[in-house]
Amino acid sequence: MTTTVIEEVRAGARVLCLFEGPLHIKVLRAHADGPCRLSELQERVGWSPEATVRGAIRNLQECGGLVKERVDGQRNAVATVLGPAGADLLQVADALESWLGECPRGSIELESDHAKVAVKALAGGWNSSLMRALGTGPKTLTELSNEIPEMSYSALERRLAWMRTTGQIEALPKEPHGTPYVATDWLRRAITPLAMATRCERRHMEGGQPITEVEVETAFLLGLPMAPLPEGAAGTCMIAMQTDATEDNEQLPFAGVTARIEEGKLSSWSAGIEAKPATWVVGSAEAWLNAMISGHFEILRIGGSDPQLAADLITGLRFALFIDW
Q1: Which CA distances in Å does 41 have to 71, 90, 106?
Q2: Predicted TM-score (pTM) of this structure
């Protein structure tokens, strides 16, 4: 008897999955210049069956990306325009397009079939906690299976194959206990569109998935090695985010990563927070998202023996992943 494992949907995945298909992107971008009636929209996005275009419009209406409005002077005529989530969705699309353009196997067009495969592989790695597991370092398939017991061995193997094929992970030389897999820098930079997708969900979509310690740790574990630091930086710093309350936990616990820096280099980093860290930077989910995406560092709380180290760390993190935004 085969047991079916229902994969958890993590924060940001709902928006990310909208962009697996090129039609949603085309429909959304077609509205950037103003309202569209159905006939106009079909011309702007290229030929697609009317029912398919209507389906894309409906999906974007459900998430607040588009809304209907009446056309002045034309009885019973309606058009669609960008809704409350429209601008943020366009920003996610732009970030995703930029990320796809940096693929180590060659630039991927956002509206291509290759993009669909890459985005689907990214969503699978995000939802399955595979990205979280790879954030701590190289892992063999067996080690990953032990760390993610809720996913079958064969399903995990498929996820790895998809991510490896698209360049999001790579295999290291085979060792006696198996072949280790490691996250590529390209996968680390996927934190940018994922963070933007998460902020969009939180701003505009009711019933969105809560941010848990898995999302927080994944973002910091994968992002920190990309952060440039001043040459003389040294010390230990904890960076932590307040997670969301759930049905099982009404509190708002913190989750994060403790990093050690030596001679301007990240020497070690691990998931987990300390009760009395030497230096720290903490904030709510909204504070972190706005600090990283928009540069509003003043809404984060920094303290401890070396606040400059904390400031250097978060500045480097934003520079590596979000400086273009």
Answers
A1: 15, 17, 31
A2: 0.91
